[in-house]
């Protein structure tokens, strides 16, 4: 079964955008608009999210990887560039390691290569708040963790609006997705990635700290590392800078 997905643009260079824990393709609305004039851009709501909210699933990394490959097959795309943010960057690692022939380049954005003690600490706290205080408190905590305190008044982030947004999926789905990357660690395999790789991290990211991006870039041969600010959601808070970095990188890649 292939999930519903978005396809925009008809350029010869195809790009698959992988969303993180939130699972909704709307995260990429701005970047899709920026890339679609020159690229074919694929994005999708993951199981339990958006247009695919009624599809049951186990909400594991393996399941999301399989869904992504099914979508590429359905779209008739043999090889694409890949962009993954946050947990989408973890999925991207699985995709390029396990399906290397399907990808011509990869961007690891605001993500991590090992679910270490810090990641587990934050994940456990979020799940505890979800279970004990409910989805509204969980959403507020998540928004605060994603927002760099130094930019709390930044209009591009709109924290006041974000903390008031209702949950977009049932708590059971949120918790299952939250658990998906626990114990993830494929650092020992990253040296086998030979396609052009860009790693983008934010110095003020509390959910995927910059040391994780530095580790990824150090382990992948010839990977480029770009550091910016904007908190965990820097593709949104620094959308123009982010899109420029991706356009430059993707423009250097042979489809």
UniProtKB/TrEMBL annotation:
Location of the AB hydrolase-1 domain: 14-237
GO MF: monoacylglycerol lipase activity
Protein name, entry field: AB hydrolase-1 domain-containing protein
Pfam family for this entry, one: Abhydrolase_1
Family matches, as PANTHER family: MONOACYLGLYCEROL LIPASE, MONOACYLGLYCEROL LIPASE ABHD6
UniProt GO BP: acylglycerol catabolic process
Organism this protein belongs to: Mesorhizobium hawassense
GO cellular component, one term: membrane
SUPFAM superfamilies, A to Z: alpha/beta-Hydrolases
């Amino acid at each position: 079964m292939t999930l519903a997905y978005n396809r925009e643009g008809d350029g010869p260079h195809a790009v698959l955008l992988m969303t993180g824990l939130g699972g909704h393709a709307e995260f990429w609305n701005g970047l899709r608009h920026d890339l679609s004039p020159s690229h074919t851009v694929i994005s999708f709501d993951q199981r339990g999210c958006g247009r695919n909210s009624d599809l049951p699933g186990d909400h594991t990394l393996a399941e999301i990887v399989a869904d992504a490959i099914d979508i590429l097959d359905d779209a008739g795309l043999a090889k694409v560039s890949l962009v993954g943010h946050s947990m989408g960057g973890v999925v991207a690692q699985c995709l390029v390691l396990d399906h290397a022939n399907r990808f011509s380049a990869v961007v690891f954005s605001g993500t991590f290569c090992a679910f270490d003690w810090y990641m587990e600490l934050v994940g456990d706290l979020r799940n505890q708040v979800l279970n004990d205080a409910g989805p509204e408190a969980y959403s507020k905590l998540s928004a605060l963790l994603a927002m760099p305190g130094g930019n709390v008044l930044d209009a591009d982030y709109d924290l006041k609006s974000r903390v008031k947004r209702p949950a977009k999926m049932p708590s059971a789905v949120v918790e299952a997705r939250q658990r998906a990357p626990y114990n993830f660690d494929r650092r020992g395999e990253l040296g086998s990635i030979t396609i052009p790789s860009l790693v983008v991290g934010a110095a003020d990211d509390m959910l995927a700290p910059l040391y994780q991006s530095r580790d990824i870039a150090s382990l992948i041969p010839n990977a480029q590392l770009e550091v910016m600010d904007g908190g965990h959601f820097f593709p949104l808070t620094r959308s123009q800078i982010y899109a420029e970095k991706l356009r430059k990188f993707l423009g250097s890649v042979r489809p």
